[in-house]
Design goal:
The protein is built from four helices and three strands; from the N terminus they run H-H-H-E-E-E-H. The chain is α+β, with helices and mostly antiparallel strands. Strands 1-2-3 form a three-stranded antiparallel beta sheet, with no helix packed on it.
């Protein structure tokens, strides 16, 4: 540690900051940040877990002409329940270029 004794006050502070940053990075990398964030959020807002963040992933299956509907939970990053069902017809506005065409047609007389 004779090397540290030759450093100026600013250099010691910078070295201490760098070492503290590396230690903090190593410690935080060993924990699951999602769990820490959920715990911190639930302390601030006790009703945090009551709100669901789920959506449905729809994948058409070409063999049967049906779609596979799978629920996805954004909070826990897990897939739930998958089922085959009739595909919904897509809106014409979902086709490529149709949104711009509908805007163009709105201004035509």
């Amino acid at each position: 540690m004779r090397f540290v004794s030759h450093l100026t006050g600013r250099e010691r502070t910078a070295l201490l900051f760098c070492v503290a940053f590396m230690v903090a990075t190593l410690v935080l990398s060993t924990f699951d940040q999602r769990v820490i964030m959920h715990q911190a959020r639930s302390i601030v807002d006790p009703n945090y877990l009551d709100v669901t963040y789920t959506g449905t992933i729809v994948v058409p299956t070409p063999q049967s002409g049906q779609c596979r509907y799978t629920q996805f939970n954004n909070r826990t990053i897990e897939l739930k329940g998958s089922a085959l069902a009739e595909c919904y017809r897509s809106s014409p506005l979902n086709q490529p270029g149709e949104r711009m065409n509908s805007l163009r047609n709105a201004f035509n007389k």
